[in-house]
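Backbone-to-sequence.
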């Protein structure tokens, strides 16, 4: 009759300084009354692991040792000295070799993966794997025009900037979260800051019409430095303005009066031309070139008013004057006899 021994595995968790878990194996002494059993004494240090099974069978001096489990590790076998090489696996062909010995569980760390969804950002030196023995802090990604608000993902419910993995297990994935940056658009008119706008990165700039702050003699043509979408910096825009040019036209009369009026202009350093009045043949007027700003035309108008006769028709006399501008605007003024300025 074959000799079969039934062994009871008793687990005792001994919380020593090394947190060792020891297992003892004892044979039964009542098997069919046909022979006496032999007792074995084996201790196992699980080295941070634990055992689930509590029964072992020895048959023909062969046995199977229990397989411990440990979070974050795979079991590789048993050594006969702490931190030694693997000497035994779970299948034992001669249980007598283990009698009176102490075994130590050997472990290999499990490598887990870390994946990232950067949501348009970039990152460098990011860890892509880890094990339970490592402590890892996720790096901070960057994204042009955005501010990093934190990571969400495995074990992180809300956006968190500082995420550290310590004593962790399992594959992990993380998503970068961002908030859009806002920058300032400065609008300048005639060298002065007119207004400002706060615009998000990549958003469309507001093309404001600055004509409302200009007079009718100045035309707004757009913004120098214009871009359609907001970059990751403040933007200065300058109004492109063209000024309408004007000429002065005097009232008509005899050629001699027109000649006297032209001399007034020339004495002031201005130029002009005598032409026949289109609506009054035989009468003549003085016109200047279209090289005056509206303000300069106003100066000329006031100058010639004070340097011409306004009490009688002695040369040079002048009772009306007009301004014509390249933007199509025109205006005329008159004065009565004895009136020094134009209405």
């Amino acid at each position: 009759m074959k000799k079969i021994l039934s062994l009871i595995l008793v687990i005792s968790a001994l919380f020593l300084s090394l947190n060792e878990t020891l297992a003892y194996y004892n044979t039964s002494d009542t098997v069919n009354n046909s022979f006496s059993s032999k007792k074995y004494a084996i201790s196992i240090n699980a080295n941070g692991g634990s055992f689930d099974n509590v029964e072992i069978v020895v048959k023909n001096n062969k046995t199977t040792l229990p397989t411990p489990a440990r979070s974050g590790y795979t079991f590789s076998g048993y050594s006969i000295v702490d931190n030694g090489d693997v000497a035994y696996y779970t299948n034992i062909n001669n249980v007598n070799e283990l009698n009176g010995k102490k075994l130590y569980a050997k472990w290999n760390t499990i490598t887990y993966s870390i994946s990232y969804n950067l949501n348009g950002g970039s990152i460098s030196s990011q860890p892509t794997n880890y094990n339970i023995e490592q402590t890892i802090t996720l790096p901070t990604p960057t994204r042009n025009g955005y501010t990093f608000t934190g990571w969400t993902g495995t074990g992180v419910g809300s956006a968190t900037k500082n995420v550290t993995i310590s004593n962790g297990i399992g594959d992990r994935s993380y998503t970068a979260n961002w908030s859009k940056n806002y920058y300032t658009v400065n609008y300048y008119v005639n060298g002065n800051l007119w207004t400002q706008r706060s615009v998000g990165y990549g958003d469309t700039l507001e093309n404001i019409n600055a004509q409302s702050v200009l007079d009718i003699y100045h035309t707004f043509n757009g913004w120098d430095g214009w871009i359609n979408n907001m970059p990751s910096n403040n933007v200065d825009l300058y109004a492109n303005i063209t000024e309408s040019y004007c000429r002065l036209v005097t009232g008509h009369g005899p050629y001699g009066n027109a000649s006297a009026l032209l001399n007034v202009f020339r004495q002031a350093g201005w130029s002009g031309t005598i032409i026949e009045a289109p609506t009054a043949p035989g009468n003549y007027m003085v016109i200047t070139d279209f090289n005056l700003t509206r303000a300069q035309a106003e100066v000329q108008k006031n100058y010639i008013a004070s340097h011409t006769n306004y009490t009688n028709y002695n040369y040079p006399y002048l009772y009306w004057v007009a301004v014509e501008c390249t933007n199509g605007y025109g205006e005329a003024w008159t004065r009565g006899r004895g009136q020094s300025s134009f209405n």
